[in-house]
Amino acid sequence: xxxxxxxxxxxxxxxxxxxxxxxxxxxxxxxxxxxxxxxxxxxxxxxxxxxxxxxxxxxxxxxxxxxxxxxxxxxxxxxxxxxxxxxxxxxxxxxxxxxxxxxxxxxxxxxxxxxxxxxxxxx
Length: 123
Known about the structure:
- The structure is a single chain.
- This protein is mainly beta.
- The chain has no helices and eleven strands.
- It is globular.
- The mean pLDDT is 97.
C-alpha cells in the first residue's frame, strides 16, 4: 500500500521560508517521478513542481519558479520542497504526488497522493 505523508507546513510571514517534506513508502520511490501540487482556498489543485527519478530534471509552475526548489533523497524515500520568499498567494494545502502518467502538470496524471500539509503566509 502506497503511503505519502507530508510535513513541514505552518504559519510564516511574507518573505519567509518553509521546507516541506514528503515521506514515501509502499512502492519503489526511486523508480517514480514525484511532484508537488497545492490547493488554495476556493480553488482547484494546481501544479507546483515535479522532479525526475534521479533528480536530474525539475519542472516548476511560473508562479513559483525562482522561489521554490524541489529535490529528493532516494536513499531516504523522501521528497522535499524548499519554499523561499513566500507571499500570501502561496497560502494553500500542499500535496505530494507519485507516479505520473501523461501530462505531469495535470492533477489527473498522478496515481498516488498524500493528505496534504497546510501552509499559511501572513501579510
